[in-house]
Design brief:
Elements: E1 7-12, H1 17-31, E2 34-39, H2 50-56, E3 65-68, H3 76-83, E4 87-89, H4 97-101, E5 117-122, H5 130-143, E6 147-151, H6 161-169, E7 174-178, H7 182-190, E8 195-199, H8 204-210, E9 213-216, H9 224-236, E10 241-243, H10 254-267, E11 272-276, H11 278-281, H12 288-302, E12 306-309, H13 319-336, H14 360-369, E13 376-380, E14 383-388, E15 391-395, H15 398-406, H16 416-435
Parallel strand pairs: 1-2, 1-3, 3-4, 5-6, 5-12, 6-7, 7-8, 8-9, 9-10, 10-11, 11-12
Antiparallel strand pairs: 13-14, 14-15
């Protein structure tokens, strides 16, 4: 992002003035722009409203851009009607201003492209009702799946497999069939399945009759001889295929299986390949997001064109969405030959990219400077802090912090609704401290792509009319 020659005007309130001046000065030096700052007559910038700002904001004539506090993002369109399109909102935390203006890892316009196909399995698809099967398939497709894999149950023939496949194909979904039952596979292929999982020496003789691409696997993971024979058998008969040497779980030959994928790519440099990554995410006591990123990176570097995943176990229940984000991240990183860092934070779920904690000095300064009884909450040093006019209480236990707050000079102004709100926010602050996440009052904790909006606690509520309880009740 180019900034040289610009004059950028920043807007803040009185309490944040010192921090804003310090950060803006260093950021202007780094990114080479002129600047000016308006300190408006309000203590806390977060209390600005569009109507109030319209009365107080004066923009210097030389300003080419105006940066408002980040909390005004929802009102930006309204403000731009008054002040013009050069009005933008900065970060919610002024310390993130350098990241707002860019970094050496700015993404190019091609971010979001990918080359790895996601095959998402519906386990025991034969046990689902037609409506449930279709709903599950459509949801996986919305999450990023390119192919819906219908997993059958060994020892139980799915007599209506053709109907199941056709119901998905009619919705323009690509379908694969996961079965070693020749009858099930043939029926599925006639109904429109475009991929068969899987083929080895036990069923390769039937593959030529299906007219469908197949996934070739070894009879056993370390049996390269039979694997190569199956590949030759299918190639001689013109059956399209992709290769899967089988990824084994951690502790059961994982590293050796990775080496087999490397060797397979060397032996067949132009062949399509698939990796069944569910053997790792489903069979490892760990959140799946980081594992999926690592496995998608391996696939990208080895040009493994497709992955098979499932999301049965709870810690992997968002695997398809994770893989969709990961394949874009890793495609960009490998294409541009850079680490996949500071490109997309959607897969940083448990902890945050960075945490800014208010210092004890800042909070004590707030307690001295503010004149209203509004309660500001912070998380710092593993403690929940509450700050108001001449009040600063803190404790690791939100219950103790609330007790101290109720005993403070602002305690009498806390009614039931306010107490409920403070308890909700304090619980978030404690979670943030536990997991090293950023806590900002009235903002949701950042859970990457799983982040939930929190407008609910700022919505107006109807008054509750409490009727007296009669003796008969």
């Amino acid at each position: 992002m180019e900034h040289g020659g610009q004059h950028i005007h920043f807007v803040t309130g009185r309490l944040a003035e010192r921090a804003v001046r310090s950060v803006v000065a260093s950021t202007a030096a780094e990114f080479d722009f002129e600047y000016s700052i308006s300190v408006l007559p309000i203590t806390v910038a977060a209390l600005m409203t569009p109507k109030w700002l319209a009365r107080h904001l004066e923009i210097p004539a030389q300003a080419t851009r105006v940066v408002l506090p980040g909390h005004m993002q929802n009102d930006l369109a309204i403000l731009q009607q008054t002040f013009g399109e050069n009005l933008v909102c900065g970060p919610r935390d002024i310390r993130d201003l350098p990241m707002f203006f860019g970094s050496k890892h700015d993404r190019d316009a091609d971010y979001g492209q990918y080359s790895t196909e996601i095959i998402a399995e519906i386990n025991h698809a034969d046990r689902l009702s037609p409506a449930a099967l279709l709903a599950a398939a459509l949801q996986l497709n919305r999450d990023g799946a390119d192919v819906i894999d219908l997993g059958c149950s060994p020892g139980h023939r799915w007599s209506s497999v053709a109907d199941g496949v056709k119901s998905l194909v009619d919705q323009n979904l690509r379908v694969s069939i996961d079965s070693f039952d020749g009858w099930e596979v043939a029926a599925a292929c006639r109904a429109g399945a475009s991929l068969v999982l899987s083929v080895n020496s036990s069923n390769r003789h039937a593959a030529a009759d299906w007219g469908t691409e197949v996934v070739v696997i070894p009879d056993s993971p370390d049996d390269k001889k039979i694997f190569d024979e199956s590949i030759d058998f299918l190639a001689q008969r013109g059956v399209p295929f992709r290769l899967d040497p089988i990824l084994e779980p951690l502790g059961c030959g994982f590293t050796s299986s990775l080496m087999r994928y490397v060797q397979c790519r060397r032996d067949f440099p132009d062949a399509r390949m698939m990796m069944g990554i569910g053997n790792i995410t489903e069979l490892t006591d760990s959140d799946s997001a980081g594992i999926n990123v690592l496995l998608l990176g391996i696939c990208q570097e080895l040009n493994i064109n497709s992955i098979l995943t499932t999301q049965v176990i709870n810690w992997a229940r968002s695997s398809v969405r994770e893989c969709d984000l990961a394949r874009r991240l890793l495609h960009y990183a490998c294409t541009h030959r850079i680490p996949p860092k500071h490109l997309d934070s959607n897969l940083v779920l448990l902890r945050d990219l960075r945490v800014h904690e208010a210092t004890e000095e800042v909070m004590e300064g707030l307690a001295r400077d503010v004149r209203d009884k509004n309660i500001r909450l912070f998380q710092s040093g593993g403690q929940v802090h509450a700050v108001s006019a001449n009040v600063h209480v803190a404790d690791r236990d939100p219950f103790k912090a609330m007790e101290l707050l109720l005993e403070s000079p602002v305690g009498d102004s806390i009614n039931r609704e306010h107490a409920f709100y403070l308890g909700f926010e304090m619980a978030k602050a404690m979670i943030a401290g536990t997991l090293s996440k950023q806590y900002d009052q009235d903002q949701p904790l950042n859970w990457g792509f799983l982040t939930q909006n929190e407008d609910h606690h700022r919505l107006s509520r109807p008054k509750v009319v409490r009727r007296p309880v009669s003796d008969s009740n």
